[in-house]
Amino acid sequence: MQNWIGIGIWIVMGAVIGLTMKAFVKLPAETPGHTPVLVALGAFAAVIGGMLGVGIFHLYEPLALSAGGMGTAAGFAALMTFVYRWGVRNLI
To answer: Which is more confident, 4 or 15?
Structure first.
């Protein structure tokens, strides 16, 4: 049960990171529809990053609410949403 709660926290944390990345990286002429994409991308990246972090740092005792899982979930979500915002900014 604790791992499901941790995965839920990863999803919410990734969505919040996606929204904050929208505030940090401004686009000059933004088209509507980027907010749901950023929320979904941040949540997905946080789950993938959290799984990687748990697998790398806590191989023998995998817990989703560990420091390695939370840190890599936040880092990977921030990286992926930043790359998305930066790439979209350069395309416009």
So the answer is: 15
Give residue 10's identity as a one-letter amino acid code.
Answer: W
What local confidence, expressed as pLDDT, does residue 1 receive?
A: 65
Q: Where are the domains of the chain?
A: 2-91
Spatial distance between the Cα atoms of 14 and 58, rounded to a whole number of angstroms: 21
Instruction: Give 63's DSSP letter.
Output: -
* pTM assigned to the model: 0.85
- Is the CB of residue 14 less than 8 Å from the CB of residue 46? yes
Let me know how many helices (H) and strands (E) the chain has, helices first: 3, 0
pLDDT bucket at 30, cuts 50 / 70 / 90 = low
Rounded Cα distance between 71 and 9, Å, is 12
- From residue 1, how far is each of 22, 31, 40, 51, 61 by CA, in Å? 32, 40, 24, 16, 15
Size of the chain, expressed as the number of residues it contains? 92
